[in-house]
Amino acid sequence: MTSNSSLPTIWSAQNIRTALQTFFVAIFFAALLSISPARAQIGPDKRELNVVATLVAESQQVQAGQSVTLAFVMTPKPTWHGYWENPGDAGIGMSFDWNLPDGVTAGKAQYPVPDTLLISGIMNYIYKGDYAVLVNLVVSERVKPGPLPISVKSEWLACTDEVCVPERDELSINLQVVGPDAAVSLNNAFNDYREALPRQLGSAATFMVKDDLFRLSIPFPENIDVESPYFFIKEDGIVDYAAPQKVNRDGDRLIIETAARGDELQNISGVLKIGPKMGLSLKASAGDVEMSGVPIGGGSSGNFIGGGDQSSASLLFIALGGAIVGGLLLNLMPCVFPILSLKAISLAKAGGEEGIVRRDALAYTAGVVVVATALGALLLALRASGAAVGWAFQLQDPRIIFVLLALVTAIGLNLAGLFELPNINIGNKLADKDGPAGSFWTGALAAFVATPCTGPFMAAALGATIVLPPIAALIIFAGLGVGLALPFLLIAFVPAIRDRLPKPGAWLDSFRKAMAIPMFLTSIGLIWLLGRQIGEDGLALSLIFLLLVALILWWFGGGQIKGLSRGMVTTGALIAAVMGGIMFLPDEEAMETQRAATASAATLPSEPFSEARLSELRAANQPVFAYFTADWCITCKANEAAAVQRQETADAFAAANVAVLMGDWTRPDPAISKFLEKHGRAGVPLYLYYAPGEEPVILPQILTVGTLTDLVT
Which residues does the UniProt record annotate as the domain Thioredoxin (predicted)? Predict the structure, then answer.
């Protein structure tokens, strides 16, 4: 539970994010609603609807001067849901376009008590399972006895946790106006429909919006128990829907506090949920509200996707365990192994001496955890500001790749003996020198270059950072760092392992030079990645500046042999060379051309991913394989080489008429970022298979040809 003092700080940034999310989601749904009925899978056959609406009347007979209640009985298919009148951050409530005879008027729709559903930080107010929306029709006294045809065009949004479809139907019912003495029979099902509606709160409530906080004081008898209270506000723009709600009890009042979005009104209305399918409908006027009393249970911000009623604490512990195990397995990934060679040299120099090994292991762990947490904090801050980014976002920028390439090349040349680093007390030049500073910067570098790799357990752990509070998310990022550093902690603090370390000797110099090889292999990988992003011409120019970096270091090393001091000149020249390489990188248009050319030459042809294209293919009942990748993602490239871009896969998909959509996340793409978040992922890879008329299947992160071909056989 967030304390009062921290709410304004935490949620002021989130207000920005939520507002932007709502804006783009609203545009997306508006675009969907503009699609023709055929494309939206709407037709006269109710079997095509995912949430079927049926119009029924409480009585087929109605007397002139009286009213009759109609019910829109909504029946969602399994896994589908509909929306409350205020859908929350996303979604669309029902709309009604009535065609009524003269003298008949329709009242306002009455909705049952909704539930919450939190997906990727977006709060939805929804109904899962059958529900009924009630509308009262008032028949004027001047209406003559006889048939009373009623028809209405209604639209609504049907969603699963993965996809949304706008739906519509034209419903009609024939009533009969009867005389005052005629018998009127009632449909008993309406007793249950009304039971699900919120009761009217007899007393007035008070609310206040101040300093990014929303507070609501509700009269509620002290002797009546309340279960998991939650306030659903009808007016949009007042509260941050996804923010947790803190609930206190002060005598005969319930006081609810949550984050405000910014808009202020003099009057609001809403529903206070006090138990399963139980709620109170209330209106509140602006006034002063103090947060007093004793906290009570409830105040959840909704169900996590795939989590049901799982608490945030349980989700945190599960995700933290996944992050630690995932970080541990990262040590086996090719993107991290070359950097580990630096730590191996440090351990070899220590020769198993307990104090040195433990000191360096702790420093290395600190470097890993600090950088992993810092990258996570920057990721959360960018998301809070409205940017759609994910894990390894820094490698979507070719400028950072070029700087990393220059750094890794310099480290490789240093290990090969081309030059030695001077004893300058600035982290001992990142990695090479002895001592805790060198170990710290080695860990920092390992964490930075580990981000392109996503191994087992990591996807779910990093995906949880999307929905957890910021502090909990940072704990998961730190846990990833602990897992990455765990092997060296075990070496340092388990004597049986540490005692097996070899003693220093003449072999150490040869070992150090051998460790330059994985560094140069990393440089080759970064050169390939840079070429994929900026094209051949841009890469050639970048390599000229990289060669300039190598020549400067060679000149510096030659001066060291002669006993000359060239440190200041070398530093300035290196800065100029790196800045030149950054400045002459090609523009975005050239990079888009390069990526298009690369995609066209693939063994398994694909179209660029878009949700609109996915919906179009799904509407045509065509199977779809959608995969999300990035050139800097080692796991993605390994899967493509081993399974996706294989002739066997291409032949099987072609035979089954499978459409292939590729989401390229090499460069920032907000649409792909949001789609990944909707599926609980903070980064790539993600593989989805959509069979006609079925829910999507999320495939494992490690693919084989058999995994893919079995989908269509």
Answer: 593-713
